[in-house]
Each structure stands twice: as C-alpha cells, then as structure tokens.
Amino acid sequence: MSPNKEFWSSSKGFVLAMAGSAIGLGNIWRFSYIMGKYGGAAFMLVYLAAIFLIGLPIMLCELSLGRASGKGPLEAMTELAPKKTKLSFLAAVALILCATAFALKGLYFYAGTCGFFALGALLFGWGFLGFTVTFLTPLMIAVFYSVVGGWIIVYAIISPMGRIFREPAFSAELLDNIVTASGSQFWVTIAAALAFFLATAFIVMAGVQKGIERFSKIFMPLIFILIVAIIIRALTLPNAHEGLRFLFLPDFSKLSAEGVMAALGQAFFTLSLGSGVGIAYGSYLGRSSSLPKTACTIVIMDTFASILAGLAIFPLLFSTGLSPEEGTSLVFKVLPVAFGKLPLSPLWGTLFFLMLLLAALTSSISMLEGAVQGIMQKLYLSRAKAVILLIIVLGPLVPLTAVSAANYSNVPKLGQFFTETLKLRSESFFAILDNTTCLWLMPLAGLMTLLYVSYVWGNKSALEEMNCFNAFDWLFSKMWLFVVRFISPVLVIMAFLKGLGIFF
Ligand code: TRP
Description:
This protein is an all-alpha fold.
C-alpha cells in the first residue's frame, strides 16, 4: 500500500491542527473538574511532571512512528518491525499478571480489560497496539466527548437570551437537567449530543486539509483572548486569592493514589496521546520539519491553555462559594456566573461557548480521523463510506451515554440492563468510558509505544526520523533518548502500581 498522499499544506498548518486536537474540552472542562476533585496545586505538580516527563516523550515517539511509516496508527507498528517479538510476548505475560491481580481484588471489569489486551498481544503482537490506538480508545472517547460537546451546544444556543447569566438559579436548574438528561431537557440533551457527533463525522468526511486545517487556523487564537478577559475579571472579585492559593500552594496530604493516576490520565487526554492521533497526523507530515521543535510547541501551547483555564475558573469558583468537588458540571456552573459579572454578558457568553464548541470539534475530529484512515485501508472503502460506517456503529452509543449520567433514572429498563444484567453497579456508562480510557487504555498504550520505540523499532531509527536541525534539537533528542528508555516507562509503571495500591 502506498503511503498517505494527503500532506499538510505547511508545517505551520500541521502544528495548528495538532494543537487543535490537543486543545479542547480537556483543557477547560476536564482539567478543572479533575483538578477540583483531586485537590489543586499538588495535583498540578504531578500533572506537569506527567506532561513533560511522559507526555512530551510519547508525543515524539508517536510523531516519528507516523512519519517514518507513512501509515496510519493501525499499520505503523507492523510496518516498521516484525509483528510479534519477544517483547510483545513479555507484555502479554505482564498483562495476564495484571488481570490476575485485578481479579483477586474483585475488580472484574479491569481484569477483563487486561485479559483482552493480553489475548490481543498474544494473537496479533504489535498489531494489537495499532488496533487499540486506532479504534478502541479514540472511538470510546469520541462517544463521551460528544455528550459534553452536546452540553456546550445547548449553552451556546441559550446564551444569547442572557437568562443563564442573569439568574444563577435558572442556570443551575437548567444545567442539572442537561447533565442528567432529565425533565424538559431529556430530548434536547440527546439531540445535542447527536448533533455534535454528526458534525464531527461530517467534517472528517470533508477530508484532512479542508476539514481540519481551516477550522484550526482561524479559531484557536480567539479562545485565548476570551479566557484572558475572564481571568482579568475573575482576579478582581472578592475571595479570588483563595483560588490562586488552591492552584499554586501544594498540599501533598490531599494527593491520593487515585489523584496520581488521574493526573497521568489527564496528561494523556489533554495531549491526545495513546490514541493514534500523533501517528495519524505525523503520517501526513512532510519530511522537512523538525519533530522536537514541533512537539515542544504543541505541548507548551496545550499546557499554557490549561493553566490559563485554571486561572480563570478557580478564582471564580471560590469567589462564588461553589465547591471544587463539583464534578463533571463544574465549568458549566462557574462560567455563567463569570459572564454574569461582565458587561454585555450575552455577547461574551455566546462567543465563548461558540468558540469552546469549535475547540471541541477540532479535537473530536482527531478522534475519528485515525479510525477512518484505518477503515479505508483495511476495508478498501471510500472516506465517505468509512465515516458512514462509524456513524452506524457509534451513533446509537451516543444517546445511551447521554442518558446514563442520570444513572438511567429516565430509562429504567436500560438501567436494569446495565446494573443487573451486566452488573456494572453505580457507575454511569459515561464514567466507565471516561475512566477506562483515561486511567487505563491510554497510559497502557503509551507505555507500549515507549517500549516499542526503544526496544523494537529502535530509537536510533526514531532519532533519524526526527530531523534535528540545530543544537537545541540535538541536545533535546539526546535527552529524549534517555528519558524514553529509562524514565517515562518507569514512571508510568509506578503510577499504575500506585493506582493499584501495590506500591508506596
Ligand atoms: N486532547 C483533547 C482535549 O483536550 C481531547 C482529544 C482529542 C483526545 N483527541 C483525542 C483525547 C484522542 C484522547 C484521545 O480536549
């Protein structure tokens, strides 16, 4: 099969598209709700360490795998080295051990996940890693991401009327109905989630350059400007310093094992790692750009966006007296209050939610892109047919996830099926998708990618692929070699062990 022919029109276009994938709901919605839940500054330090010691090196691995193979994530690994190696066998053994440990702890769901991976690694070797990062993880994310995208659509539609900014009680009740898909908002929520999902699919159908680049180029800078405006307003409110303290004064006693896992998961989520995006986009990248510079730019932009969002949201949160442990609805409760305190609130609010919607779309298209590439290659389908196939398979899961957030109270039959037949007690389908991907699938795929690049493909080849142009690139790539071999894999394994309560 010939390598991909669709190249980015420029390396700047590529950086913007990667940044478009990275910057999204993860930086604003997920970052603030996870940070609120796991306790502020101490979490932030672990998160930053995870970004620079694990995330950045893995992103470089993914980009070089993509560009070297010229293939999408599905085939990149098997293109560059034999399918089954000693290491893939060892990985399978390790996974069987994990599955046993989970089973002994009574965590059958996770035991099953590890068992599934072990079987895949035994049967398909590295090809299974390709399958996971191409189909499993990004598509699971696309489903729950569409639900949050739907909430944003609803907010964007009602913002111009201004009532959510003038009457906090109205906005709280409305939000409750939206996030739990209940009351007057039952159908609205389902329709909005589906609309978000279909919009994503439609853009992917339109093709790489036209669909992705154009969107990213125009809208990314605007959202930064609006967030800065909110920060300025937020910092002048009473009690704002409490928020700054929460963000910057670490209290390590609050950091739990779960918090460490969550920080790692957030690092993967926010950089779109462990899900084939870097490999897919890297395969479209021309030979002339330097990967270290590109990856650093993307990671720094994304981290900057998250910190800005934190600076806007936490001072506001404390000045309005809400609790940081608000959960998935945190930003949706805090932001209307913020806009309510600005002159012309309907205008700023509408603009903000529209832009957030676009940021979310540039991310969600990257979740489908790799899978579409994979289906096109394997089933010899056109892009349009591949997208339609995805719509048929994933479409029904979107409403299911949207209504699961209310613990199925609106749809008791469905609830019975999940809680009694499948025995998935007390967790919503939404939470299961979120936890399985962020806490397990992505870090696991990331770990495998690190091992693959270091010990199977060989990091000499990766180094050649990077195109080091100057002293910075050169120095950076030497450090990268060391970190990828010895630091990142150990850190990921330590986080796993800590999460399992086996270590520390
Ligand atoms: N990084 C995006 C965000 O922060 C989410 C995202 C896009 C993603 N593509 C992904 C997450 C692939 C995991 C995998 O919103």
